[in-house]
């Protein structure tokens, strides 16, 4: 497989992931994604913006979030996001302690 073909497959896979998170599993809260997977939709939007900036493309945080959420973030929050429960917050903190982010080298 060529580098171009790999890039096309990766892009299609990323688009499918976004569709899944936007439509099929909009019910899954970001905090639950963070607890279980260590990343959420906001992480994806940060990575998207970082990739754009690495290629000289200026992108705001809001623009990146809209690309990932498929709508303005505030609209997503009002339609899909609920307040984190005390159980979710405790699980998030336990996951954070169990899997700390690596610091600078």
Automatic annotation (TrEMBL):
Start and end residues of each SMc04008-like domain: 28-93
| Region described as Disordered: spans on this chain | 78-105
Lineage, top-rank taxon, reads Bacteria
- Polar residues: bias regions: 78-88
This chain belongs to the protein called SMc04008-like domain-containing protein
Species, as recorded = Luteimonas cucumeris
